[in-house]
Write a structure and sequence with these properties.
The chain is of the alpha+beta class and 231 residues long. The chain has two domains: 95 residues; 125 residues, Alpha-Beta Plaits, CATH 3.30.70.270. The chain is 55% helix and 12% strand.
Length: 231
């Protein structure tokens, strides 16, 4: 049954304007079919399909038309808002991720990118990281809604700048995780307390951790790689 739906979906998508026939299939397409048929979470499946389409260079309008074609051939009617929103969120996050790798600053928050942070750490480790730490802040609870994720990211960035207004390196570590490379000095406790007291979403305050930088540069890279995973 699923293969039949897959074939009819592809045909409907081609008929409604899909531009590259050879690039239509992706493993995420089969996951979405299972979700529409009730086999797995629809929102997560649509997020994955949106990310896959963006990674293949498919525009948001063409991708949404393709999603609508699936619902049409499966007899499910119009895609529900949750499915459309999840698809758009996956598409947007995948589309904008490379921008942060190509520029020093993340375009949304203005914090430095992971690529720049790696360069800054390399400079730091040419000397000694002793007395330096990484202050990490993130929402204390998982944030699911796209609009709330964007708001939380912006508010985290604002709170980080307010707490660390000097020459510290302020970076976007993950979609909803920020960090400051700073000295472990007499001002650190006050700045961490200020960051913990900030409001980032509906009165919620962030979870803040202070991580001493490892002795070796390779260990520092492994640390920020772990922190880059979505909380």
């Amino acid at each position: 049954m699923e293969q039949d739906v897959l074939a009819r979906w592809r045909g409907r998508s081609m008929a409604t304007g899909w531009s590259l026939a050879d690039d239509w299939w992706t493993p995420e397409a089969e996951v979405v079919i299972k979700a529409v048929c009730g086999g797995c979470d629809l929102s997560q499946a649509c997020w994955g399909l949106g990310a896959a389409r963006a990674g293949a260079g498919v525009g948001i309008a063409e991708g949404l038309n393709d999603l609508a074609a699936l619902f049409a051939v499966s007899g499910a009617g119009e895609p529900p808002f949750t499915a459309v929103r999840s698809f758009a969120a996956g598409w947007a996050e995948q589309s904008f991720a490379p921008i942060g790798e190509l520029h020093c600053e993340d375009p949304l928050t203005g914090l430095v990118s992971l690529a720049y942070l790696r360069t800054r750490l390399a400079q730091l480790y040419r000397g000694s990281p002793a007395g330096t730490c990484l202050v990490v802040a993130e929402p204390s609870e998982r944030v699911e809604e796209l609009a709330e994720r964007l708001a939380a990211a912006l508010n985290l960035a604002t709170a980080l700048r307010a707490a660390f207004p000097g020459d510290e390196t302020l970076a976007l570590l993950g979609p909803l995780r920020v960090g400051a490379v700073t000295d472990r000095d007499e001002l650190l406790a006050e700045r961490v307390a200020r960051l913990r007291a900030s409001e980032i979403l509906y009165g919620r305050r962030p979870r803040v951790r202070v991580r001493p930088l490892p002795r070796a540069y390779g260990q520092a890279l492994a640390l920020i790689r772990t922190l880059s995973l979505d909380p």
